[in-house]
Amino acid sequence: MIVPSAGLLTVALAPVLAVQGMRIRRGIPRLPEAAGPRTGVAGGAGGASVVPSAGVSESPGAGGAAGAPSGGPHGSGGSNGSGGSDGIDRSDGSGGAAGPVFRLAVLGESTAAGVGVATHDEGLAGFLAREAAARTGRPVRWQVAARSGVNTRTTTAELVPLLEPADVVVVALGVNELLELNRPRRFRGELRELVAAVRRRLPGVPIVVAGMPPVGRFPALPQPLRAVLGLRARALDHVMRDVARGAEGVVHATAEVPIETAGFFASDGFHPSATGYRHWAEALACALPDPPGPAGPPVAG
């Protein structure tokens, strides 16, 4: 049996897809980004917590630059190791110590920006930080550099410069590329440039590229739009795998998440709820690198 490609289906069904796309844009509620601080600490002697970092603003919403430090940005030549030579406060913010702080940055589009939940503590960054803290026994300082609606090019130009020194950068992108019908070949070049830009900003930092979500199973999308977007999402995910294989220190993390779980989606049926972000973070945590330096005692629970 010959399965039509995403491109052929898109052309053949273009009139139907255009109508369904307009209806979806009008019908899906536009949820705000997560509110509150875009940096915090999870784990450590005091357990999970959210602690604003000095000089980091709260979420400005979709119209502003997410997570922009009010002080001078850290230069790309600074160390991103665990020795503290970069001038960053590496204490866990909880009044105790459980080993050096593991620094996590979440970069990308609306899911990285926590659309679907009230605060980043309930979003991808918060859950991923707590999962990493539980697995490593380290306090985890997390940062969000994200904005709803961005694509890979915008992220490279406007959000990568906001990254603070980190021990790993998790990239959550691709859905807007999908909705914009970006071609895989073009996406490949743009994703490579994103990786290069992150490396210029934070030399040697490990990068985890989150795989495309299973859009072909999203209940909010009608057929045949769901099927076509599902095929195109697989094509973009294949690009992500290839880019990761071709770059040292870059890992592609397959998004194996149980989206059929009750309560997985937020009210728009498109973005995750707190339950959805928790499941996604549990899957992504397996791809995180081991923290540098000596580990502290395991976190109970």
TrEMBL record:
Residues 106-278 form the SGNH hydrolase-type esterase domain. Residues 48-60 have a biased composition (Low complexity). Residues 31-94 are annotated as: Disordered. Signal peptide: none annotated. InterPro entries: Ester_Hydrolysis_Enzymes, SGNH_hydro, SGNH_hydro_sf. Transmembrane segments: none annotated. This is SGNH hydrolase-type esterase domain-containing protein. It comes from Streptosporangium pseudovulgare. The lineage of its organism: Bacteria, Bacillati, Actinomycetota, Actinomycetes, Streptosporangiales.
